[in-house]
From TrEMBL:
Belongs to the glycosyl hydrolase 28 family. Pfam families: Glyco_hydro_28. It comes from Bacteroides cellulosilyticus. It comes from the Bacteria. Keywords: Glycosidase, Hydrolase. SMART domains: PbH1 (SM00710). SUPFAM superfamilies: Pectin lyase-like. GO terms for biological process: carbohydrate metabolic process. This is Glycoside hydrolase family 28 protein. GO terms for molecular function: polygalacturonase activity.
């Protein structure tokens, strides 16, 4: 009787499974043709695991119980295996056709962490030997299978996965080290097994090259982690209601399956789990994913179709996939296509989903090895918030980094030598994104295509994004925006590089419908139109953009209230350090204003400015700085020649302040001389022995090379690192205007990691060692105008960090304008580098006079293969040079005679127009590498250079596309 009742209940359950789950409602109004989904055919046989000796105590291993129960059901034609309430420990489970695994509420199925319980499987594909452990749940070439219920399936992934030190707390890291396991040589990754064999395996790809027999390979099995569930070449599959969590590798991996339904499941992995994908749908067709939640350590829902040549030869695309009513709480990407998409991806619909606190939202990724065609993708009604990087990302240069790690590593497609299109070239087109909204993202969007095969035919309709940085389109064709709103802190909310037929209607950026704040750059743009305004870069447009940038720079504004230092006890010819400190604090506390230094001479130690404070020197006021190094303690966070450290305070310093200024007609006197600060530089003796006091410098460089933390890079008086005169560190809205600066210990004005900086009408006069005038470093939106430079080193030197530190920060200097200035003396008038490891984009120099027999090079860009960095966009116009010592323009890739190194610097798009010179040794010196091209697009137009002394007018090495247009050297036309 009991068996009869059980049979009736099973039959009723099958009826509900077959008829009650009407998934046709999710297939209405699809933008592509898709057949009706077929549910699995599960017979009415129903058994409990306990009938085959199963014990749910969390101790007994039930592997054989599961195997026997599944074999019994299979022999009877199929049915349902019920896992009751309890904790069921087991080894791998292999499902068979017409079988449903049903977990009752409070059933917890845990897979053993005994690695030897999981046999290996292998396949040969395109002569690549591929090994993987059997997944905890698997099915191969089966049909009509289901996993249902309200229970939890746990893969014990904590005993399989490596853990990176930077992804756990200090306590968690110490706990891991107390367990069995091993650290890598660098001490940054913990592996669960105390064996060093992993160095022979390419773990990320799970492809073993050194071991070809099972006996050899068995030594590597600990490092080839299985997916929690792998369904291969199966048809009619249902996953419903169950929680899948804590996988060793990817969580759910259906491959080459048809008629797959994922309904109401919960997929969980720790946020920091290595390769902890949620659902990876590979080369599957007719798939529905609905009403499910994902909280994982890598991509949440990911569409794949094979990798590189193997995927292309297999030629099985992912096709007809609908993802609806799903929520992603964490993951590298909410919905992802790629990067293993070599077999193609077509006819995908994602709608009515939410992505919360993911690294990216919609993520499309590939690279030049993948090949494959992705088309007919439809995204509708997606809502996001707290996206760390981009809510919409197309990355055709994917190399395995997470989106956050790669966030600043974009726009690599602006190369000058474009490779041909081959079967390895990926193609993305016909992608339609509508009604997508995001609140709080790192960058609005990034479309980073390939120059040889643009991302094409993309529609963005009714999209709103709130982000810190603006959006970027690079190497795109036929992108259409309709009703797109971007609200960002970026002064340039949209940037377009080398794109064609990019159009926008009803596009609003930062509340403005006018396209003036949208950049279009590159020499391959065509038909870029936003809000009926044509924007397509021509050479003549570069200066139009320059004017726009100047208009974007946010200016300072101060309350109309003066704080005169005499009211705080300051007296002429006295040390007024404490009076200045009190006045600055009072001004800041009250909401801002001017701290006024009246006419007269005063002395002070270090000054630290605060937000909303304008330090104003009246005409006739001279503020002299004390020369005892102890007056510049305690140490502060800074950079010294591009390297991060804690060192003596600059004479005037601001850290993390907003709306700060130094103004007036007075003088700032650092009182540096050979008797104090300058002696720290050292001199060459008569025998030319270098006696430079550089112990501190050498120590700092050693720390940088060995990646010693900033907290340990402490440099005090005995280290003899001279401080800059004025430094604004991580500040926003800065003004320095009208003052005269003399006798600086080191660099004179050093805006660092700052934005919206204006330097206007300042007189720089100091001829000590390393006395650069103004050095914007890793800054954005800087205007230097109407200044007078008389310096012992470069007048203006633009930088972005040195070596490892510059590359780690990866914050380029960008949007730098130098205009209407006089450069009376200095090593260079305007230089970029050599500390340029973080790169530099878009420098404009115009209407400047440079004239000195000791000025080596009026215009100079310098780096080497230890520095690296990219300089893209240096534009000089209407420059009058009287006399210079060496060359009007020098591009130098072997600075300091460094001829080799691992970081290849690149210079491109260097344009000079209307430049005149009366006397020089060379016209231009372009000194690249003899064995490769790293300098691209140098153009001199309407230039007149006279009095060139050397017979060899130019020296050009390692450059491509150097052009002379209507340009004469010594009155002779240069072609």
């Amino acid at each position: 009787m009991k068996r009869f009742i059980l049979y009736i209940l099973c039959w009723m359950g099958w009826f509900v499974l077959s008829a009650g789950n009407d998934y046709s409602r999710f297939l209405h109004h699809l933008p592509f043709d898709m057949p009706q989904l077929q549910l699995p055919d599960i017979p009415g046989n129903r058994i409990s695991l306990t009938e085959y000796g199963g014990v749910g105590d969390g101790i007994t291993l039930n592997t054989e119980c599961f195997r026997e129960a599944i074999e019994h059901l299979s022999a009877k034609g199929g049915g349902t295996l019920v896992v009751p309430t309890g904790i069921w420990l087991t080894g791998p489970i292999r499902l068979k056709s017409h079988i449903e695994l049903h977990l009752e509420k409070n059933a917890l199925l845990i897979f053993t962490s005994d690695f030897w319980s999981y046999p290996s499987r292998s396949t040969f594909f395109t002569e690549v030997f591929y090994r993987q452990l059997q997944s905890p749940i698997s099915a191969y070439n089966e049909s009509d299978i289901a996993i249902t219920g309200e229970g939890v399936i746990d893969g014990s992934g904590q005993d399989w996965r490596p853990v990176r030190k930077n992804k756990v707390t200090v306590d968690e890291w110490e706990h891991l080290q107390r367990k069995s396991g091993v650290l890598n040589d660098a001490g940054t990754i913990w592996y669960p097994m105390a064996d060093d064999v992993q160095r022979y395996a390419r773990r990320e790809e799970n492809i073993i090259h050194k071991y070809n027999t099972p006996d050899e390979w068995v030594r590597l099995k600990d490092y080839v982690r299985p997916e929690l569930m792998h369904l291969y070449h199966c048809e009619r599959v249902l996953l419903q209601g169950v929680t899948f969590q804590n996988s060793p590798f990817w969580n759910l991996h259906p491959e080459l399956c048809k008629h797959l339904i994922v309904d109401g499941v919960c997929v969980r992995n720790p946020w920091n789990s290595q390769n902890g994908d949620g659902l990876d749908i590979e080369s599957c067709q007719n798939v529905l994913v609905v009403q499910s939640t994902f909280d994982v350590g890598d991509d949440a829902v990911c569409i794949k179709s094979g990798r590189n040549e193997a995927g292309r030869l297999r030629g099985m695309p992912a096709k007809n996939v609908v993802v609806e009513d799903c929520t992603v709480f964490h993951g590298h990407g909410g919905f992802v296509v790629g990067s293993e998409m070599s077999g193609g991806v077509h006819s995908i619909l994602v709608r009515n989903c939410k992505f919360l606190n993911t690294d990216t939202g919609l993520r499309f990724k590939s690279n030049r090895q993948r090949g494959g065609h992705v088309s007919d993708i439809y995204i509708q009604n997606v809502y996001m918030c707290g996206i760390a990087a981009e809510p919409i990302l197309f990355d055709m240069y994917y190399q395995g980094k997470s989106a956050v790690e790669a966030m600043e590593d974009a726009l690599k497609g602006s190369m000058e030598t474009i490779p041909p299109v081959t079967e390895k070239t990926p193609k993305f087109d016909h992608i339609h994104i509508s009604d997508v909204h995001c609140y709080q993202a790192g960058r609005a969007l990034l479309f980073d295509g390939l120059p040889e095969q643009n991302i094409s035919d993309i529609t963005l309709r009714n999209v709103t994004i709130h982000a810190v940085e603006g959006g970027v389109f690079s190497e795109c064709t036929a992108v259409r925006m309709e009703g797109v709103t971007i609200q960002t802190n970026d002064s340039v909310p949209l940037k377009v590089y080398n794109s064609k037929r990019l159009t926008g209607n009803r596009v609003i950026c930062n509340g403005d419908r006018i396209a003036k704040n949208i950049w279009v750059k590159g020499n391959r743009n065509e038909g870029v139109t936003i809000n009926d305004i044509a924007l397509c870069e021509r050479e003549s447009d570069l200066w139009k953009y320059c004017g726009q940038v100047a208009g974007f720079i946010q200016t300072t504004s101060f309350r109309n209230q003066d704080y005169v230092i005499s009211h705080y006890g300051a007296q002429k010819n006295q040390n007024i350090t404490e009076s200045l400190k009190a006045a600055i604090q009072a001004c800041h506390t009250d909401g801002g204003g001017r701290v006024v230094i009246p006419k007269g001479e005063y002395y002070t130690a270090a000054i630290h400015l605060l937000s909303n404070v304008n330090l104003h020197l009246e005409k006739g006021a001279v503020l002299r700085f004390l020369t005892s190094p102890e007056d510049y303690l305690p140490v502060v966070v800074s950079r010294w020649e591009g390297v991060d450290c804690r060192t003596l305070s600059p004479l005037i310093y601001a850290n993390g302040q907003t709306n700060v200024a130094i103004t007036g007609a007075g003088t700032l006197d650092g009182q540096a001389s050979r008797d104090n600060w300058w002696s720290w530089k050292g001199r060459k003796s008569s025998s030319e022995q270098n006696t430079e006091a550089k112990v501190g410098k050498d120590k700092l460089l050693w720390m940088e090379q060995n990646r010693i933390s900033l907290d340990e890079r402490i440099f005090s008086v005995n280290d003899k690192l001279r401080p800059p005169f004025i430094q604004f560190y991580r500040c926003n809205r800065v003004l320095v205007e009208g003052v005269t600066i003399i006798r600086s210990p080191f660099w004179m004005l050093h805006p660092l990691l700052s934005k919206n900086v204006i330097v206007r009408g300042v007189k720089f006069d100091s001829h000590g060692p390393n006395n650069d005038g103004c050095d914007p470093e890793s800054c954005e939106n800087v205007l230097i105008e109407s200044c007078d430079f008389n310096n012992g080193d470069d007048c203006v030197a633009i930088k972005s960090g040195k070596n490892n530190d510059g590359r780690t920060w990866n914050l380029p200097s960008r949007n730098i304008i130098v205009r209407n200035c006089i450069m009376r003396d200095g090593h260079a008038g305007v230089a970029v580098g050599s500390e340029i490891s973080g790169s530099c984009y878009d420098v404009w120099v115009r209407d400047c006079v440079m004239d000195s027999p000791s000025m080596d090079r009026p215009l100079r860009i310098k780096s080497n293969a230890l520095r690296g960095g990219v300089v893209d966009g240096f534009y000089a116009r209407d420059i009058r040079i009287g006399e210079c010592k060496q060359a009007v323009l020098r591009l130098e890739l072997q600075y300091e005679r460094v001829q080799s190194g691992p970081y290849n610097p690149v210079f491109r798009n260097i344009y000079l127009e209307n430049v005149t010179c009366k006397k020089s040794s060379y016209g231009i010196l372009i000194e690249g590498f003899e064995d490769r091209i790293s300098i691209f697009n140098v153009r001199l137009k309407n230039c007149r250079l006279k009095g060139i002394q050397t017979p060899e007018l130019n020296k050009i090495v390692g450059a491509e596309k150097v052009e002379f247009v209507n340009t004469t050297f010594n009155n002779k036309s240069i072609e």
